[in-house]
Structures are given as C-alpha cells and as structure tokens.
Amino acid sequence: MLALNLLINGLVTGCALGVVAVSFQLAYSTTRIFHVAHAGIYTLAGYLAFSMVERGLPDPFAIIIAALICAALGALIQYALYATLERRRASHLSVLIASLGVLAVIQNVISAFYSPNIIPFTSAWRGQMMSLGLTEVQVATLIVCLAVFAAALLFARLTPLGKRIRAVASNPFLAEITRLRPQQTYIIVMAIASAMVAIPGALVAMDLGLQPYNGTTVLLTATIAVIAGGIGSLTGAFALAVLITVLQNLSLLAISGEWSVGITFFIFLIFMLFRPTGLFAQR
Amino acid sequence: MAGHTKAIADLSALGASLGRRDVLISILAGGLASTLPLGAWANDAGPIKLGAILPLTGPGAAVGTQQQRGLMFGVEQINKRGGIAGRPLEITYEDDQGRPDQAVLSFNKFVDLYHFPLIFSAYSGPTLAMAPLATRKEVVLINGGAQSDRLAKASPYLFNTIPVAGDEIAVLTKYLLENGKKNAAILYENDAAGTPSRDDFIKSFTAGGGVITGQEPSATGQTDYRPALLKLSDTKPDVLFAMLTDGLGALAEQLRQMKPDFLVVGTSFFNDPDALKNPGSNGWLHTQVKISAPPELAAAFKEKFGVAMEFWGTQYANAVFIVAKAIEKVIADGALITGANIRKAFFDVKTFDVMVPAVFTTNTAAMEIDIVQTQDGAHHLVKEYKAG
C-alpha cells in the first residue's frame, strides 16, 4: 500500500514537473536561451491565481487568467530583454545573468507585495479527499497536466505555428531567409511556454501553498529532465520529469529522504555518462 | 584603556602646540579612538545603541517579523519608563534572511562600523555562525528564538533567553512516556535547528524505553511533506515528533487530508499562526516555555501592532527587558557599556524578575515549561513542569 501511495504521489508531482520541463524545453530548444526566469513565472502564476480566488473567482478561471497574464509577461521578457540583448550581441552568459536578474526581481516583487512567508491557498476546491488518498486538486493536477502535455505534442506536430516553431528551432538562419520571422516566433514561443508553466504553477500552489522562492528547485529538476530526456524532445522532457519524481518517491521505500535526491541524480549522472545526448535525443 | 585615553590627550596637546598640523593630529586621534574597546563612548547621556539581526525576509520571515515586533515593543516600553538609567534605548535592524553568511556580514557591520556592544539574533544557523565572532570581539549575542542545543555552549558571550530545545524535548518525552506513548516517528528540518533536536528526541525517548519507528528529513521552506508522511505513517507510530521551524501550516493541511492515527507532537515552534488557523492542527501536543505577558502589556502590544502578542513577540520583548536590566547594572556599577561588562552583569544579576522571570546560572535561561494542546486555533494547558 505504501508503494502504491508513493507511486501515485510521484505521478501527480511528476506530471506537474513534466509540464514545467516541456515548457522549458520549448523555450530553450527554440530560443537557445537558458530562461531561468521561467521559475519566477511558475511562482508568479500561483500568486496571481491566489489573488483572483481571494476575490471570489472560481479556481479554473483563476488558472486561465493567471496563464494569460504569464503569457504576456513571457512575451514581454523576450521582446524587451532577450531580443534587445541579442541585437546588442550580448554573450550567452550575459543573457543568463539577465534572466537570473528577472527571476530575482519577480521573487522580490512577490515577497514585497504578498509576503515572504508560506501562504496557505484556501479555496473550496482544495483539500477535498477523493479515492486513493488523493485530493481533488491533485486529481485535477494529474488530468490537466497530462492534457497540457498531449496538447503541446499535437500543437508542435500538427499546427502550422507548431511547424514554424520547429523550423525556427531547427535552423534560425534559414528561417530568417525563408521569412519565418524568428524574432516574432521567439516571442510567441515564450508566451506559450509561460502560459504552460503557469498551469502547474497555479495547481501546485493550490495544493501545497505559496512560497516566493519555490520555483527555483522545481526548475532545476525540470532542467535535468530536459537534458536527460534529450534537448528538443518534448516527450523526453516529460517522461524524464515523471521518472525522476517517481524514483525520488519510491526510493523512500529503501532509503531515507535525506539521500533520495542525491541518489536519484547520481543514477542520472551515470546514465548521462553513457548517453550524454539524452534518452530521446533528436537526430 | 587608560593608555589609549592618555595617547589621545597627548596627541591633542601636541596638535594645539603645532597649529598647522591640527587636521592631521585630529585624524590620528580619531583613528586611535576608533580602536578603543566597544562602548568606550557609551557612558555619555546619549541613547544606548544595540543591533538586531533577524530573518525579516525569506522562509523564516513569519517568525522574524514576530521577533522584530517584540523587540520594538520592548524598546518602546523601556523608553516610556524613562529608558535605562535615564538613557533611551535604540535598536538597529538588519535582515539576514535566516542565512549564516548574511548574518556574519551584518554582525561585522554592527560591530566594526557601529561599535554595538550587544546584538539580538535568531535562528540556530546564523547565531552559531556569529558565536565565534562574538567571543573574539567580546560582543554579547542575545538569542531569544533559536533552540539548537549547540547554542548552550557556543560562546561565553551568547545568552539564550529561551531554553534550548533539549530542555523542552526532555519534558516532552517525559510526558509522552508517562502517558504510554512508546512508538515515535520523527519529521525533522535538516539544519542546525532540526538535527540536534532529532538527536535529543531519540536519546531522551529511547532512554525512557521508547522506540523510534522511523525518521525523515525536510528542507527549510519545504511545503510538500506527503512522501515523508506516507512513509512515516506506514511505520505505525503512536506519535509523530515534528521538528520544523517553518511550513507547519502546510504540514497541518496535509495531515488534515491524511487523517492519520498518530498524535502530532513538537516544541514551542508549533506557535505558528498558519498551523493554528488550520483545523489539521487540532489535537497537536507541544511543549511551550511558560511565557505570557501581563494583560496591560498584551493590550498595549495589540494597540501598537494590531495583532495579539504572539509567542515570539513576547519572547523578544522579554529579552529586551532582560538586557535593559543587565545594562542598568553595568551603569550602576559605573562601568563602561561593553560586551564584557554586560556579560558580567548577566551573572551578577542572575535572577531577572522581568515580564517573564528568567534565571541565568549558565548562558541559557531556566524557565517553566508547559505541555499544551492545540484546539480551534488556541493552546490549552495540559500539564506544567517546573524549571530545571
């Protein structure tokens, strides 16, 4: 029973992390920007949803509006910051530092406006128990995140915009020549990635509460999933995020939680030595 | 000290006779004066200036802001009563975010730049990081919030105005074993506050015949305890000892969802407003240092801050009263307000009959410890244990 409970808990947490990984994958593999500020957008989404629920908006609408605001913020970061830095021929390191700066600003603004403390997310939806020891919001997280992943796959493979994004990601120079307008595509990609990451951001906040600095660890784990899954592979990022989280949960059966993160990542370290391009690397 | 004063006088006299070199001489004299022991200028009529390094932002801010309110209130009360021997008290605040490295930077700033003879601190990690510096620079550190056992002997200049966790845990395990709770699981914060408390609990509980069924760590600021709770719940404990300084609201919520069979127990850190508000904390049992403000002070606190006088607010206000008494003794002895003299005054006064009485036979205050139970957002007394 314990193993089943840990597995289910790992799957729920893993699906939320999977969407974070997929959204980061989308942004990174297209723009080649290590968009650390993504962690800030993830956190911000929870606070935005919280504010709207506090004002009486139903939870699903709060999540949708939070996602739209985050999409606008993601597009703004790309348009006003990253594109400007690229025009000025800033190095990758400079862009990374700028992204870290945005993350710090978002975290500090949240901290100043709300509170640096952990805030419980009190909505009527949260905390209602269902079968298998899951709460309603955990079930919603599982279903919604799986749906978002499936939608991302279909979008990337079947829609003209998805194909355009893949073309730009594959060869930006050729995309420029063929008038695919890479800079405009980057803005769209950042908006989509930010809207995507807002969904687990809001759902996890509803489940576990709000904390201004919680996005950083989530993004770190998602980044490892992106690398181990293979740069450019949405399926790889999602699958590895779920696998990492399930492994971390199940490892508690044998070892203390003190060691679970270290041992899980040690296994991936060994794995990367043998398959450095990742499990689902695109050729 | 006398040598320093004479040197300044000699330099000043020389300056007067040489005329054109006045400026240079003044600079030299000023430089020499800055090397004098801390508080050398403290026996004038100006305010007595102290520092406080607290976690005002970051994961520990919920407790840190309560502590700051306590200090501000204590200072206001002292100054309303005419200050310390007629001199007003002032406290300058620095935010260390609960981080030892930041605390050390703030400590050095307070000591080297402002020459404060006494600094209030909070949280075990930062306080332990500052303790060796306090010894070396002879600056008194006053800890009213952290409870790691290591704090008891960390520095001769560190005074804990709250009993260390080991004292509370000894009372808690005694109560549990007296009441037939023989199996315990532990959820602890994996840091300077949590690990010594875990060790104390294991030592004290097993010495009385108890069995530890399992233990799991958590990180500061963590909000997802489900995997650890699932595992610990599976070990079928009678009680879960939760040693967390933060995130107790999230723990209460997740326990409310799980509806476990075990009793949740802890220490004074269970005075967490978010946990108290959550119905999941109903029935939690914990030790509490007997500390409550007189009604008129509690009312004044509420009027000033708009909130009830919380546990940590009371602790730190009490710490200000203790410090004021020690400094009063220094002044009464005609000594300079230095860290060394304040330290000596602590042991000279020994029994501080202030808002909440505290006795200092060592560097840690002895106080009465109660067992209380949380129900509907309030603590209810279960049993009293006398100090010591």
Total number of beta strands of chain A: 0
* Percent range for β-strand residues of chain A: under 5%
**CATH topology call of chain A:** ABC transporter involved in vitamin B12 uptake, BtuC
CATH-scheme architecture of the largest domain in chain B:
3-Layer(aba) Sandwich
Number of domains of chain A: 1
- Rg estimate of chain B, integer Å: 23 Å
Explain the overall architecture:
The complex is a heterodimer of chains A (283) and B (388). By secondary structure, chain A is an all-alpha fold. Chain A has a single domain, classed as Orthogonal Bundle (ABC transporter involved in vitamin B12 uptake, BtuC), CATH 1.10.3470. Helices cover 76% and strands 0% of the residues of chain A. The mean pLDDT of chain A is 90. Chain B is α/β, with parallel strands linked by helices. Chain B folds into three domains: 34 residues, no CATH class; 194 residues, Response regulator (Rossmann fold); 139 residues, Response regulator (Rossmann fold, 3-Layer(aba) Sandwich), CATH 3.40.50. Chain B is 45% helix and 19% strand. Chain B is built from 13 helices and 14 strands. A seven-stranded mixed β-sheet of chain B has the order 7-6-8-9-10-13-14, sandwiched between helices. A five-stranded parallel β-sheet of chain B has the order 2-1-3-4-5, sandwiched between helices. Chain B has a two-stranded antiparallel sheet with strand order 11-12. In chain B, strand 11 and strand 12 form a beta hairpin. In chain B, helix 4 runs parallel beside helix 5. The radius of gyration of chain B is 23 Å and the shape is globular. The two termini of chain B are 41 Å apart. The N terminus of chain B is likely disordered. The interface between A and B is medium-sized, with 30 and 30 residues.
Annotation keywords:
heterodimer; A: 283 residues; mainly alpha; ABC transporter involved in vitamin B12 uptake, BtuC; 11 helices; 76% helix; globular; B: 388 residues; alpha/beta; Rossmann fold; 3 domains; seven-stranded mixed β-sheet; five-stranded parallel β-sheet; 14 strands; disordered N terminus
